[in-house]
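We recall that each integer encodes one residue's backbone shape. We quote one record:
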Amino acid sequence: MRRATATALIIALSATMLDGCGSSSDQAQRMTLAALGTPSPSPPRTSASSVTPRCTNVTASLRPPAVMPAPGAMAAGSFMAAIKKRGYLTAGVDQNTFLFAYFNPLDAHVEGFEIDILRQIASAIFGNNNPNDIHFAAVTTAERIPAVQQGSVDIVADAVTITCQRRQQVDFSTVYYGAQQKLLVPSNSSIGSDKDLAGKRVCATIGSTSIQTLRSVAPRAIPVGVQQRTDCLVRLQQGSVDAITSDDSILLGFKAQDPYTKIVGGSMASEPYGIAISKAHPDFVRFVNGVLAQMRADGAWQAIYAHWLGNVASPIPAPPQVQYVG
């Protein structure tokens, strides 16, 4: 099947160029390259008590401060003040999710919906929009939670679905995007839903909720696990898998990259995205929730959504509803 060569070229360039980007400064690039040269974060050992956690309200998060600090004026002793003193926020992101967090080989920057949300958080800490205020570190799906736990990043915004299991390991912000797990197949595929997956090779990222749901919803499917999301699109284009299962947010980006594909079927599972933060920093969780609350109130969330997703997912929805505890 003939593919869009320009799209394939961009995917290939993204895969072979820098795996993580920070600011436009050389120093930020060198720091990111150094970080990528270190061993990947090791998944933590799972205790027996965390195997079957119980959550009464999985997406509820810590309440924002009654009064948010002025941008650039963080309270002494807070984690935000420590970040400001350091001079930059370190954020774990993907670089392969088109429209959400994508390394653009044309200008060597990471861009997308999640990147703009992270920039709003950095701006609230530092009081300006200097690109050097945030450094991005590339993480795979399986590395997201360990990176937060081990402190190699301050924060992760990388399509992380809030689950009971993950809440035992890290804290989460309020939901900033409500995704649904679906299927992406070639345009001429006869697959119409998860009921058609028996004996079919279905690609999903290792360590994702998608691959877990696939095993539950379509036990006769043949899961094909990969480290990077874009590997699934390449395999679909090569014909080595029959379908991709992932969040519709990710699949929208794949479909935009490859017009010879289509998204099919209903929702296989709800995927509420939260920003992952260490349990050692509840003040930072509250601060991030305050930034997100302001974005919902002043229209910044809707503007960012319209900019990145308005052409592929319409109409523009209201921001996800939130619930607070504590």
Remarks:
- The chain has two domains: 5-36+60-176+274-321, 180-271.
- The CA atoms of residues 58 and 82 lie 29 Å apart.
